[in-house]
Amino acid sequence: MSKALLIIDMLNDFVYGSLKLPAAKDIVPNIKRLIDAFRSQKMPVIYVNDNHVRDVDLELKLWGQHAITGTWGSKVIEELKPQGHDFIVSKRRYSGFFATDLDLLLRELSVKSLVLTGVATDICVLHTAADAFFRGYEIIVVSDATASLTHDRHERALNYMKEVYGAKILSTAEIENILLKPQP
Ligand code: ZN
Question: pLDDT tens track of the chain, all 184 residues?
């Protein structure tokens, strides 16, 4: 089944800046491994990035200004910088599907299965998984390439996605095995 790697909100503001999640930097090496695996197989790597309109987007009332269009905080962290063949989808809500062209892009790429990584497991990853489920995609969440504010919130979100959206919860090493093992 044709897969795409989704990297959700690995932006300066969430890793180092105004809405920093302490665990976010710990998952960077695993996401890098997955990016390398997908690129080596010429499979799609899609960055799904918060990109807010200053003082306008509803979410900013809850969280304060973050990932504002054009700022350092809205850029993907240097360690995971997008390259030439990668795709970038900008979003203004938690879900990568809401009012974006992610679904169109995935259909044009004939992708049926999404490998979700990034932050936060219980907010943007979870809402993206919900919308992926409603649209009929297979969902894989990488347990050691996603992170939340606390480990408990991370674990609860993984369990929720497994129970409610039928998500498969796999490790980085398990995804590498699936992608890189010789085809029969
Ligand atoms: Zn946001």
Answer: 699 999 999 999 999 999 999 999 999 999 999 999 999 999 999 999 999 999 999 999 999 999 999 999 999 999 999 999 999 999 999 999 999 999 999 999 999 999 999 999 999 999 999 999 999 999 999 999 999 999 999 999 999 999 999 999 999 999 999 998 876 6
Q: What's 99's domain CATH number?
A: 3.40.50.850
Phi then psi for residue 157, to 5 deg, are: -65, -40
* pTM for the model: 0.96
**Residue range(s) defining the domain that contains residue 89:** 3-180
Burial class of 60 by CB neighbour count within 10 A (0 to 12, 13 to 18, 19+):
middle
CA of 124 to the centre of ligand 1 (A): 8
- Split into its structural domains, the chain has a count of 1
CA 97 – ligand 1 centroid, Å: 14
Ligand 1 geometric centre to CA of 52 (Å)? 7
Ligand 1 center from residue 39 Cα (angstroms)? 27
- Centroid of ligand 1 to alpha carbon of 122 (angstroms): 13
Query: What is the Cα–Cα distance from 112 to 40, expressed in whole angstroms?
Result: 19
